[in-house]
Amino acid sequence: MTNKKKSNYIPKDKIGNNSVSKKQITKNNMEKDIKDKKVLKEKNTSPKNIILSIKNASYRYSDAEEDDYALRDVSYEFESGKVYAIRGRSGTGKTTLLSLISGLERCTEGEIIFDGKSLNNMNLDKYRNSDIGIVFQSYNLLPFMTASENIILSMDVNGLKIKNKKEKAIELMEKVGLKESYADRKVLRLSGGEQQRVAIARSLSYNPKMIIADEPTGNLDKQTETEILEIFKKLAHEENKCVIIVTHSPNVCDTVDVIYDLKKVKDVSASK
Amino acid sequence: MFILKNAWISIKRNKGRNILIGIIILIIACACTITLAIKNTASYLIDSYKSAYDKEVTISFDRTNMMKGFDSSGTEGRECAREKFDNIASFTVSDVESFADSNYIESYYYTYSVGLDGNNIEKAEIELNNNMPNGFGRGKENNIASTDFTLTGYSSLDAMSEFINGTYTMNEITDNAWEIAFDGNYVFINQELADYNGLNLNDKIKLEDEDGNTYEFEIIGIFKENEEEGTDTMSMFSNSANILVTNATAVANITTNNEDLQATVNPTFIIDSYDNVEKLQNEFYEKGLDENFILQTNEEEASSGVSSIENINSFATTFLSLTLIIGGIVLFVINMINIRERKYEIGVLRTIGISKFKLTMQFVSELAIVSVVALILGASIGAVSSKGVSNSLLANEINSSNEKTEEIGKNFGGENMNGGIPNRGNKGEIRGKGMPVVEAYDSIDAVVDMKVLLELLGIGLSLVLVSSIASMVSIERFSPLTILKERS
Predict the structure, then answer these.
(1) Which residue range(s) make up the domain with A190?
(2) Which residues of chain B make contact with A158, given a CB cutoff of 8 A?
(3) Which of A99, A129, A140 sits opposite B353 (nearest CB)?
């Protein structure tokens, strides 16, 4: 039982004093927070628009012992139009949860429901190339391709049928703050922040309903981090996408609308 | 479509590795083309040999069966065996015709022999000193035949096996000999008999049976017997000195008039397949063939002629197998390395939602594109090379075939076998037993034909699939998240 993990849902407006006080450090943050809370408040008044719900999801590696779970009994709900953060210390199962909600693995127990359909019964390849976009800390772009080729590849995998894919790729790049001239550059010639923008543009190439990001700003400086997070917020609040960020960065947590805290059961017991 | 696009991008990106794979496949394709062409040529020669050998069936005594009831208890045992031997029902020409009326038999021919005495000629014989030990010489006591001559009638040219295989060679022949040889009382006689009796072409000889009936024959050819192992070295004359060669009809005319004459029929049946021999034998028994006779085929003889070519064929098969195994392993290893190097790419593509099947198809397509180009080049180089290899393989057979053709022509008394010798019907010209009809290949297509190209295509596809197993297994087993985490 020592390995058992438990999730805690902590809506941002109910989060502990420590977190709030962190946000009061800068004026900008405070202003943004007030604005975000307004949005959140408005959202709360309307009926819940749940795009993804995790119901008692557990995951155990096939070679693990019977009671040795990497993730156990997790239940969360995610709505469209919000930015979520899933945080937790190392070993709490963040990556496992990410792989489950991004359809890279299937739950061994429980289920994840996306847009009313259980991932257990879905074609996960189709889910990954149509319904969600994934952004990684290390960008995971193909280095031998140009920025636009990486985005077009994602459109091809999705089976998107549009006349001028390059034009669409450039449009997406501009949306995330990259100039047209970057389109034909090999991604290795771009900076970290630029590569992450290309990765975000790639994830948006087939207009998914949900963006899942794994430590998207982990390799970036503070300024770039802020800009990237701003893009995510815009996507959620202006384009009604659900953005889920797996992170342990306090800065990111301060920006999002809702935080889910993954904790080990033994840690919770200890705090009690 | 994007699978092919991606495959092409990857090929261009990994030029070095793909050129290496291409060279290996090119070498394999080249070796395979040459080997397949050799196999093709060998098969052609084997078929040619086998078709040159008519599938023959002859009737002979079942000695094993005969010896079953034989006990070696001195005179009694011998008497018993003799009685048994005498009771064996022999068969006649009409029996042979009845046997030949079978679905398994394509054609037949026979020799029809009868013993006659000379009327105006003498048997070629010189009695040796009586002091010579028994069993030597050709004295009367040792002569099996009680008559002076054996008149052997052949039903057709095919039946004249002694001339075809070179035992007899024509020394002299009249101009129209082969036009009339099978239609009337004409004979070919041994040179020794001719010398002994002072006979020449167009002379007439008379033979008589036990009842004193005489039969006149005109000499249209004089032959000699070539020395062979079986020739009695203690005799002045060859075995065939007193054999008169004529046609079966002439012999039949003699036996029809005199039923008491002992005549021997030796039929040869040409069958469609050796597999039907047992059925044919049962059919013969049903038609009245004595069960002390069995059917024998020339299958062993036919097979022995192609053993050297079959060895080449089998060597080519082994070489082909080794080439494919070694080539397959090398390609597999290169692909394994390729997959390990491209693990990250696989992880990214899987993460963005490309299915395992499509990803596998991309890797297979990459290899297939390189393979097709290399196969075309390899097959072209192999085709050019294999023409020389195959023709040199055929050269000996061509020479041997030509020599045999000329030889048989000479045996029949002509400069070549077609000169003045009638064809033997549908089968075309007379060939030596097991003499293949071979000709040099003039064009590449003859060696590397559609069959070879299809085989090559099959080999190419198999190689692509075998060497793609590495990518298929890896893609199946790789967890994209694990790959990306490792990379991070």
Answers:
(1) 143-208
(2) 353
(3) A129
Is residue A123 situated within a structural domain?
A: no
Nearest CA in chain A to B346: A142
Same domain for A201 and A218?
A: no
- Please tell me the distance in Å from A212's CA to the nearest CA on chain B: 12
> What are B17-70's pLDDT values in tens digits?
889 889 988 988 888 888 888 887 777 777 777 776 778 899 988 877 767 666
Q: Do A216 and A258 belong to one domain?
A: yes
A149 and A260 share a domain? Answer: no
* Domain endpoint, select from A208, A236, A254: A208
Q: Is residue A265 part of a domain?
A: yes
> Between these two residues, A142 and B52, which has the higher pLDDT value?
A142
Q: Where are the domains of chain B?
A: 2-53+306-487, 56-304
Burial (CB count <10 Å: 0-12, 13-18, 19+), residue B222: buried
The structural domain count of chain A equals 2
Nearest to B367 by CA among B387, B338, B344: B338
The whole-number pLDDT of residue A28 equals: 45
- With tokens 């904790």, the residue in question is A263
Which of B171-180, B210-219, B412-421 shows the highest mean pLDDT? B210-219
Tokens of A268: 């919770």
**CB-based contact (8 Å) between A251 and chain B?**
no
Evaluate whether residue A36 is within a structural domain: yes
What's the pLDDT tens digit per position in A207-225? 899 999 988 888 778 888 8
In a shared domain, residues A201 and A214:
no
In A135-164, the residues whose Cβ lies within 8 Å of chain B are 136-138, 140-142, 144-145, 153-154, 156-158
What integer pLDDT is reported at residue A133 of this predicted model?
92
CB B413 within 8 A of CB B173: yes
Residue A109 sits at the chain B interface (C-beta within 8 Å): no
How far does B355 lie from chain A, in Å, by closest CA? 6
Q: What are the angstrom distances between the C-alpha of B328 and each of A60, A106, B340, B445, B468?
A: 39, 37, 18, 27, 10
- Residue A105: its chain B contacts at CB < 8 A? 479, 481
B354 vs A contacts (CB less than 8 Å): 125, 129, 157
Nearest to B341 by CA among B8, B10, B9: B10
Asked whether residue A9 falls in the same domain as residue A98, the answer is yes
Q: Between chains, do A125 and B351 touch, taking CB under 8 Å as contact?
A: no
Question: In whole angstroms, how far apart are CA B218 and each of B183, B186, B200, B206, B392?
Answer: 12, 5, 10, 9, 49
Residue A121 falls inside a structural domain: no
Q: What is the pLDDT of residue A33?
A: 45
pTM as predicted = 0.60
Residues A92 and A183 in one domain: no
Distance from CA of B341 to the nearest CA of A (A): 13
| Cβ–Cβ under 8 Å, residues B102 and B243 | no
Stretch A9-26: mean pLDDT, rounded?
A: 36
Same domain, yes or no, for A55 and A176? no
Among chain B residues, the shortest Cα distance to A144 is held by: B13
Residue of B352, B479, B488 lying closest to A157 (CB–CB): B352
